Amino acid sequence: MSYFKKAKQENSLTEFTTKETLIEVSKYKQIGVPSRKLSQESATYAEIRSSISTTDGKTVTATYFPSYSQEGEVVGYIKRDWTIPKDERGHFTAVGSVKEKNKLFNQQNIQKGGKRLYIVEGHEEVTALREILLNSVKGTKWEGKIIPNVIGLPLGTGNAAACVAHNLEFIQSFDEIVLAFDSDSATPQELKKGILKGKEAKEDVANVLLSDNLFTFTHPHGCKDSRECLVKGYGEDLAKIVSFNLEKYSPEKIIAGTDVDIDTLIAPLKEGHYIERYPELMKKLHGIREGNELITYCAFSGVGKSTLAREIGWELSRVTAPRSYNVGFIFLEEPVTKTQQSLVALELGVLLPAFRQNALSVATREQINAAAQATVQNGRVFFLNHFGSMKVEKLMQQIKYLHFINGCTHIFIDHISMVVAGLESNNERKDIDMLYEELAAFMTTNNVTIHAVCHLKRVEEHVPKVKDGETPKAYWREVKKEMLRGSSGIEQMSSCIIALENEVLPDNTRGRVRTKILKDREWGVLGLCDTMLQQKDGRLHVVPTYEGWRQGDKTQEF
Q1: CATH of the domain at 422
Q2: Hey, which bits of 167-287 come out as E strands?
Q3: Does residue 446 form part of some domain?
Q4: SS3 for 4?
């Protein structure tokens, strides 16, 4: 909501004012607007007025949100004209004097010095969040005792910092300040135009407040704001989050060298969780760490990078207390049921295609039920039910929900190219780089490890030449960092890059695969790791690396 950004620059709202007067607007009734989920009680409480169509005598044509001076007088209104589309000029206008120095919306109804203050982005979010919180205590012993303190930005995100600065004393009188702005962010292009959204407004306001009692949260189910939660029926979920699961806001800041303690300097690198079936890979990586990691898996198409990522996710999800992990799966190239079936098949030790074709032919119902309880139903596994491409902003919302709400500390995305495939920019390289910037920024500031599967560029395959009379030999298709999609964003932003290389056999049957570390920011150990082969149980097993191992070597069967 940056509809008055220009007003901030010009320090005037003349361009946005209407010919209506305060007296005329004051004669409009304070009525609910069902189409906007604005109840009669909320309209009366916040003194929100609406005009009615003279044609049918019942249609709401515009809604007016009051703006109070610091002296406590109504000096203006923000008008939303419902006859004009939101993005068109004239939808938002001002009646009277609506300025940055006025009180924040609904501030006149709240006493200073309370326990907690919620600051939302817009007028309608104030009534929505207040109504959601009031509904959450109905029928309990807290009904009528807990009255939420919710205020909103009167002029949108473009003027957020200035409006808050004019009301610092009031805001800082509360023990806790919750920055409940919209869960969206401006694109680089929008930022260049001076357009700010929820993320940027939150940062601006936090920089103004400069206090350690700031909290925030992510709206559930990918909703952008409180009103959307109310409209879509997610009010109860939002109430739980803002009441019991707030996150301490931690802005980026400069740290003085004098504040660094010796214990921090000498603390050893954190060891991760060791997955026994990949001994060499784990030895070089020192395990899969929880938090502040962005691991990229890459390989040629059909080699098994999704299988590797799936197996690691399955292994992590099976770890029990005291070191258990919540794992999120965002597999965009397959239906969510297939992702769930793959975990059950891994637990059963059967091939996924066979399980999907006829599950009862490879296991009994009791066995399947036990495997499901150990994997998809263990309370630590969460799935995004989405197929196909999605906008980066939407993906980040889902990742945040998996982490903040579901408690996932490992999140798998398969695959990155699918995310950007449907974007309108037609510049895959740039889109992938922007996506990785978002992923890297998120994992850096949060205790989460993101596992991203990425395709390689289409490159010309170097097939060994065979002289006349010679028998073709097996060879390995090597993977290099330069083959990654995008420009250089994946290589730069990834904490670790794990490649999977496949062995090409003369008869074109499936050969071995091997893992190779192309980048390891923490330990710096690169090179080949485990050589494996997918066996009858659907899993990758380590096999010998020497040539001719297939002849008479019984370790090939498990």
Answers
A1: 3.40.50.300
A2: 176-180, 214-216, 247-248
A3: yes
A4: coil
Whether 26 contacts 74, CB under 8 Å: yes
Q: Which two tokens stand for residue 449?
A: 């490890």
- Domain, as residue range, for 350: 281-459+472-556
Per-residue DSSP letter, 484: B
Find out whether 163 and 120 touch, Cβ atoms under 8 Å.
Answer: no
Q: Identify whether residues 330 and 236 lie together within a single domain.
A: no
CA neighbor of 541 nearest in space, from 275, 331, 342: 275
Q: Which of 227, 248, 269 is the last residue of a domain?
A: 248
Burial degree of 18 (CB within 10 A; 0-12, 13-18, 19+): middle
What letter represents residue 317's amino acid? Answer: S
Tokens in use for 296? Answer: 């990229």
Number of structural domains in the chain: 2
Q: What pLDDT is recorded for position 149?
A: 95
* pTM recorded for the entire structure: 0.57
Q: Residue 361 contacts by C-beta under 8 Å, 6 or more apart in sequence?
A: 354
Name the one residue in this structure whose structure tokens are 């962010």.
185
Sign of the CA dihedral running 484, 490, 492, 495? negative
Strand-strand pairing, 327-331 and 410-414? parallel
Give the DSSP H/E element, type plus range, for residue 299: strand 293-299
482 pLDDT band, cuts 50/70/90, is confident
Q: Directed axis angle between helix 428-445 and helix 392-400, to 10°? A: 20
> Bridge-partner residues for 533, per DSSP?
541
Last residue of a domain, one of 229, 248, 267: 248
pLDDT in tens, 531-543: 988 777 767 888 8
Judge whether 258 lies within some domain.
no
**Are both 95 and 16 inside the same structural domain?**
yes
Site of tokens 């309608």: 124
